[in-house]
Each structure stands twice: as C-alpha cells, then as structure tokens.
Amino acid sequence: MDLVKVQLTNSEFLSTGIEKLDNLLEGGILKGFTTLILGSPGSSIEILSKQLAVKGKVLYVTTDETEQEVMDAITRFGWKPEHIEFTDIATKYSKSVLSREKKRVSIYEQRSKLKLKELIEIGSSGVMPAVKAQEDFLAIFSNSAKTTSPEKIILNSLDFFLSMYSQEEVLRTLHAAKVANIERAGVLFIIMTKGIHGEVFERKMEGMADCVLELNVIQKGSTFERFLAVKKMRNYAKKIGIARYAIDSDGFVLEMIERIM
Amino acid sequence: MSNTLIDGLKERVSQAITINTSVGVILPSSNYSDMMQALFEYMSSRNDHFWVYLAISKPYENIVKQFEYASQMTNIRFIDCVSRAAGITNKDPNCIYIESPSYLEKIIIEIMNIFKEVGDQLQKTLIIDSLTSLSIYNDNALVTEFFTHLINRTRLKDIHTFSLAIEEEMDDYINKIMYLRSNKIIKLRESFI
Amino acid sequence: MTNSESYVYNQNRIGLNENENAKSSCPCITGIDELDQKLGGGLPSGNTVLLVGSSGSGKTTLSMQFLTNGAKIGERGVFFTITEPLFKLTKNLEKFDFYDKKMIESGMVNLIDLRIISERLGLDAEKYTVEDASALLEILKDIADELDVKRLIIDSITALCYRLQTKEMIRDFIFKLGSSLASMNCTTILTSEVPPNEVKYSQYGIEEFIADGIIFLGDVDRKGDLIRTLQVIKMRGTNHSRTKSAMSISSKNGIELTPLLKSRV
C-alpha cells in the first residue's frame, strides 16, 4: 500500500480517481497516455466515465448526455469534482437537429398557391441555396482541449462520432488528439462500446491506445458478474490484470484483483 | 483512246440510271478509276438529279482531291463511312461522317434524312461505292440484310440506286444479292476495252 | 405486293391500333416517328413509363425530345432532374436542334431541380423517411397540377429510389405518383439507370413492376463497335412492336430509330 502512495505522488502518474483502479494499474495512468475503455452493453461504462472525472483538472466531452445530465448523475453519487469543464456536443447536436426540423416548411403551408409558385421558381432557377454546413463535431472535439489545457480529457463516447463520420476520419482525429495529449502530458480517456464497430476497427483502436481497459458482463446462472480487465499497458507488461467489480451508491467498486503475469 | 473509254462508260451509266430503279455495276479493279471518272463527269452534267454518294472504298477527302468540282456541286452530298474509322478527323459541311462502316443502321438513317429534304422535281439517286468494301467490315448476311432493307426503303421513296462491286472482291453472297436486288446489272470486262 | 400496297397495309395497321386506344384516350405522341409507329401511335396517355438504360444511353435526350415535341403541339411538360444540375442539363440540350430556349421561357417546358425543392422542404439529402417521401409526392403532384402539365419526367427514379430506404417505400412512391398523375392524364417517364451490359430494368427490382411500360435502351456489339438500340419491352394498353431498333442520336435530329439489322452472332 505504501508503495502505491509513493507512486501516487510520483508526477509520472495521474490518478484515475478510483483508488483500487489505481492499485490495479500500480499507480494510475502514465502521463501522456491515451486510454481506450471498451465496455460491453450493461457494463455501466457511463458511470465509470463520470467517476474518472472527479479527480484532477478535467475536460469532459459529452456526446449523448448534456452537461446538466452528467452533472446530475455526478451529484447523485455524491462526488465532488475538483475541477471540471465540459464540451457539450450533445446539446449542440440536438440544437442542429431541431433547427433542421424547424426549417422544414409545413406541407400544408407549401400547398398554398403562392408558396407553390415560389417553390417552382427557385426549383427552376437552378441555384442551390447555400446550405449551411452542419457543424463539424469532430473539429469541436479536437479544438476543445486547446483552450483549457486540462490534465484529463474524457471522451464519452466515440460511438457518436462513429455514427456520423467514417472510421478513417475518426482515426485521423484521434491520432491528432493523442499527439496533443502527449505534448500536454495529460491523460486521454476514450470511451467506446465494444462489439458494434467491427473487429478490425477495435483492433486499430487497441493498437493506437497506450492502455486498454475492458469492461465485461458475464452471466453466471441468474446473476451477472462484471469484470474490468487491463488488456494492454504499453511498456508495463506486468500491469496486465483483471478485477471483478460491482456498482453501488459510491460508484465503481473493484473487488478482487488477479494478476495475469 | 482513254476518252473513248470514259465516254463509253458514261453512255452506259446514263442509260442505266435513267431507266432502272436499281443498277448494279460489277467491274474489275483495274477499271475502277475509269468508272469513277465517268460517274463523276456524268453526275456533274446532270442538274436535274440529286445525288447521295456513299463512300466506303475511300475517304471523302481523297474523292474531292481527285474530282475537285464535286465539292462545288450543290446537288450532291457525301456520306463517308471510312474516315472516322481510319482516324481521320476532318470536317466538311458537304459530307456526313459515320464513325464506322459497321453502323449500317446509321447509314440508312442518314441516307433517308438527306433525301427527305430534297424536292420531288429532282431525280434522287444513291451511289454505293462499294458493296464489296462494305463486306470487308460486315458479315455477308448483314450486308445482304442492309442492302435488301435499303433497296426497299429507297424504292418506296422513288430513289434510284447505283451500286458498285469490285469483281475481285466479290463472293457468291454479294453476287447473289446484286443479281436479286438490281433491275439491271452492268458487267464490265477488260475485254470490253 | 407492290410497294404502295405495303404502305397502305402499314397505315391500316397503325389505324387499327389507334382505334383500340381511342376507347381510353388519344395516345401521347412522342414525336419520334419510328417510336410512335412502334407504340401504335404513341405512349398511352396517363401511363407511367420506365425508360431504362445505362449511363450515356440517351435517356435524358429521349425524355427531353418527348417534352419539346409535346410543347410543339401545345402540351406543357416538366422535367425534374435529380442527378444533374440545371446548367449542365441545358448546356447538353443546347447541342440539339430540337431544343428551343423559347419553350423554357414561355413555360411550355419547365426544368426543375428536385434537389433544390427537397432542400427547401427540409428533406434530408441522403435519406427520406416515410413522411419525407409523402411530402415530396404531394409537392410533385401539386407542381404538376399548378403547371397544368401533360408530360412529366423524373430523371432519374433510380436516384430518388436511392433515398427511399425500403422496397415498400419505393413501391408505394411510384404507385401513388403514377396513379395521381394518371388521374390528371399526365404521361410520365421515369428514367432508370442500370449497369451497362446487364439485362435488368431497374436498380431496385421493383420499379419495373409498377410502371405501365418499359422502354429499354441498350446496345449490341458488332465487331467491337457498339450500336445503340431501343426496345419496347412492355406497354400496357397497346399492341406495341417488340422488335429491337437501332437508335441514332444526332444534334440535328435528336433520336432516330431504324430496324436493327440482325447479324448472325
């Protein structure tokens, strides 16, 4: 235990904010590391992503929940984040969807003679109205770290980008984010659902990440067992291990640690 | 000597063309240029005719080089089937170029289109130069069908046809259709000279 | 039989077909003589016809000629383009003698970019929902009604079907479009893009079953030279010819047909 404490003060590492996870990782995440967290559905990966945000100077990039929703969840668990900022892509996205929906002219309105004539006229003019390009969410993500210089960036989740952009585009952006993270000597967490983006893409992601954590749910009889595995840790082969975990009112609780090596 | 020959040919062409709706000319290749000369001289002398000249044996360019006055005639149009296929890209308002001698349907369309615009006061005549060169680029059966088709359509519009065939290039097929589809066959023999 | 007899015989045959059609309505003449002859007078009025061919086979040219020939006899038409912007379309059209700018200016021929319309309606550029599709359908009907057109083209239905996501939606769309335009007695050509050298009438395999007629533009190989062909595959309500014709496209005369010579291949 003492050893861990010593290591925690070591400036080479950054605490995840979960003591037992730091233990499993023998000190935390090495600064400059990009960590991929893969979770199968039902693994409560979204809770882990918020718990990671408690410690340190954090930039939380949220794509599915709004800033408010994230903060509500954090408060529910009674966590008090030291310093948290948000890049709220979820809100931006829903706004853009809404505005598109608003622009849609009601068919009943269009059916009036006047509107129809106008419609025919613009249709015959051949001039495509300047379409306001949709916001580039990938760009928002990659720019967000530049203004705040956080210690920790948590991206929850990559699934959103993969549903809107090609895998190549997403990978390119992540590579840039990884390089920026090294320069900043911060840690970058990328959350992604396991098993829905194709095996090849998962391999590519695992290859790119310095550290890979995987959350799995296994059904045993009538109960579910949850495991957190450290699948990869660049240059620290002995850190590879697996722990059973549960979720209680305090969040993630790691129960048993098994070393694989 | 040569003039007598040309004059003789012209005489025969003249007689045949006026009387018959479709004339076939079978000639040895050695007499081809004489025939051309007789034909063009005859064409230029007849203002009461309208001619369409289907050039398959040689490009339009070559023809007008030899008979310069032909390019000045207002009552003749050329359809050139070989220039484009040979990669010659010249253009001439007096000539319609067809991409390939195998576009037989296109040839029919162009022939009929030209004649459609010609008034009835002129005698319309189509010169095919030559059926045997057409058979170089197409299967015999296809040439037969083309020729049959063409004769049917031109007759319907009172268009006369004058088709050349080179004896050495002829086979049974061409021979047969010439005889079946022509009202009159002119056969030139070297002995004739 | 003499030539003049055969001519009369031909005329009678066409006359017979016209009588058959007279029961419903006068055929919508395409103005391409040989095609009208093949169809026994023209396209049956109010029919929806699929004009099938690979890219560059002359679908757009044929459709445009159909519209301009209609304009010449006082029938208004509208051309909805999806694949090509209008300036490209008119640039290509200017090459043809049948195209007359005055027809556009006078409103006898209307060219409309459907992408602009759907953008204005707020439809997604890539995918249409069921609601989107019915909104678009309503607008197409309204425009046809407003312009009082007798001839309507969609170039291409393939591009439109690409945005409709299921076979049911495609079926529904074409069926509803066809029936409402038929009730306006508006004759419709939907162009259908298929891969070259494939005997296939539509990309999605459904369009052909809903259309009243199919005209196929293909080509045959003659010693390496490709000859354009046109064949009427089906045409409800007519006694059409099923023979293959050779097709020529020229700037002077647009599309012309002549019987295809059959080589022994």
Task: Characterise this structure.
The complex is a heterotrimer of chains A (261), B (193) and C (265). By secondary structure, chain A is α/β, with parallel strands linked by helices. Chain A is built from 11 helices and 11 strands. Helix content of chain A is 42%, strand content 28%. Chain A has a 9-stranded mixed sheet, sandwiched between helices. The N terminus of chain A is likely disordered. A 7-stranded parallel sheet of chain B has the order 4-3-2-5-6-1-7, with helices on both faces. Chain B has a single domain, classed as Rossmann fold, CATH 3.40.50.300. In chain B, strand 2, helix 3 and strand 3 form a beta-alpha-beta unit. Chain C has 265 residues and is of the alpha/beta class. Chain C has a 9-stranded mixed sheet. In chain C, strand 8 and strand 9 form a beta hairpin. Chain C starts with a helix and ends in a 6-residue tail after the last strand. The interface between A and C is medium-sized, with 22 and 23 residues.
Produce the secondary structure layout.
The complex is a heterotrimer of chains A (261), B (193) and C (265).
Chain A: H1 2-9, E1 13-14, H2 19-24, E2 29-30, E3 34-39, H3 45-51, E4 57-62, H4 67-76, E5 83-88, H5 89-103, H6 107-110, H7 113-125, H8 137-148, E6 152-156, H9 158-164, H10 167-184, E7 187-193, H11 199-208, E8 211-220, E9 223-233, E10 241-248, E11 251-259
Parallel strand pairs in A: 3-7, 3-8, 4-5, 4-6, 6-7
Antiparallel strand pairs in A: 1-2, 8-9, 9-10, 10-11
Chain B: H1 2-19, E1 22-27, H2 32-45, E2 49-55, H3 60-66, E3 76-80, E4 95-97, H4 104-116, E5 123-129, H5 131-137, H6 140-156, E6 159-166, H7 172-181, E7 184-187
Chain C: H1 3-22, H2 33-38, E1 48-53, H3 59-72, E2 77-81, H4 86-93, H5 101-105, E3 109-113, H6 114-120, H7 130-147, E4 151-155, H8 157-163, H9 167-183, E5 187-193, H10 207-210, E6 213-222, E7 225-235, E8 245-250, E9 254-259
Parallel strand pairs in C: 1-5, 1-6, 2-3, 2-4, 4-5
Antiparallel strand pairs in C: 6-7, 7-8, 8-9
